[in-house]
Amino acid sequence: MRQKIRKGVLTLTGLFFPVLFLWLSPFIIVIAASHGIISASAIMFGILFLISLIGSRLFCGWLCPAGAIQDQVAKSNDKPWNSRGKNLSKYVIWIIWFSFIIFLWIHHRTFKINLLYLCGINKYIVIIYFIVVMLIYLFTLLTGKRGMCHSLCWMAPFMIIGEKAADFLHIPRFRLKANSESCIACGQCNRQCPMSLNVCKMVKNNDMEHSECIFCLECVDVCPKKSIQYGIRKSNKADKRQD
């Protein structure tokens, strides 16, 4: 039932992506910054960072419209796309992109907040939207499951940095926890994971910390032995230091 609800919510956000695009666009924030404007997408990325301090990457697994598109594309190409190099590329892109935005804001110095900047239907917004959607669709089709999340996503780094900040500040956040003793290594968690993570190995090592985990809870729901739990807690490393 939980996965039906999650997938239903994702489908809904995917359908509303044309409306939500103003709040999630990697292009509009740049265009706005070039005029010294803090747009809705800039505010949204800040909110995603703050939410991740407690909610980790729940947005990616439950609400992201780009994730909804990728999950549909995975029906055509469900090959795994997950490695250190592939995951690293999004950080390189993000650093260049975000640094350019900061430069533009500093260059203009006077900041104006306009949450409705470029709001409306015109040919430029339609073209930008089409480019973003086709990039998500084609890249995922060519690479595999959630390929865009691994290699290109402009939103994931905000939340991953939020997770790291929460751990550094010892703030309890949403996490998975494993019971390796009950695991029978059936591999169902690996097959169901939309991020192509080796969940079985993570369970066996009693270490469920992974920056690419989007907390969709597929592994929790598919495990026949209920070896994976979830909740809001501090990191295991923090607990060990306290012990």
TrEMBL record:
<keyword id="KW-0812">Transmembrane</keyword>
<dbReference type="Pfam" id="PF13237">
    <property type="entry name" value="Fer4_10"/>
</dbReference>
<dbReference type="GO" id="GO:0005886">
    <property type="term" value="C:plasma membrane"/>
</dbReference>
<feature type="transmembrane region" description="Helical">
    <location>
        <begin position="12"/>
        <end position="37"/>
    </location>
</feature>
<dbReference type="GO" id="GO:0051539">
    <property type="term" value="F:4 iron, 4 sulfur cluster binding"/>
</dbReference>
<keyword id="KW-0813">Transport</keyword>
<feature type="domain" description="4Fe-4S ferredoxin-type">
    <location>
        <begin position="174"/>
        <end position="205"/>
    </location>
</feature>
<dbReference type="InterPro" id="IPR017900">
    <property type="entry name" value="4Fe4S_Fe_S_CS"/>
</dbReference>
<dbReference type="InterPro" id="IPR051684">
    <property type="entry name" value="Electron_Trans/Redox"/>
</dbReference>
<feature type="transmembrane region" description="Helical">
    <location>
        <begin position="88"/>
        <end position="106"/>
    </location>
</feature>
<keyword id="KW-0472">Membrane</keyword>
<protein>
    <submittedName>
        <fullName>4Fe-4S binding protein</fullName>
    </submittedName>
</protein>
<keyword id="KW-0249">Electron transport</keyword>
<keyword id="KW-0004">4Fe-4S</keyword>
<feature type="transmembrane region" description="Helical">
    <location>
        <begin position="126"/>
        <end position="144"/>
    </location>
</feature>
<feature type="transmembrane region" description="Helical">
    <location>
        <begin position="43"/>
        <end position="68"/>
    </location>
</feature>
<dbReference type="GO" id="GO:0046872">
    <property type="term" value="F:metal ion binding"/>
</dbReference>
<keyword id="KW-0411">Iron-sulfur</keyword>
<dbReference type="Pfam" id="PF12801">
    <property type="entry name" value="Fer4_5"/>
</dbReference>
<dbReference type="InterPro" id="IPR017896">
    <property type="entry name" value="4Fe4S_Fe-S-bd"/>
</dbReference>
<keyword id="KW-0408">Iron</keyword>
<keyword id="KW-1133">Transmembrane helix</keyword>
<feature type="domain" description="4Fe-4S ferredoxin-type">
    <location>
        <begin position="208"/>
        <end position="233"/>
    </location>
</feature>
<keyword id="KW-0479">Metal-binding</keyword>
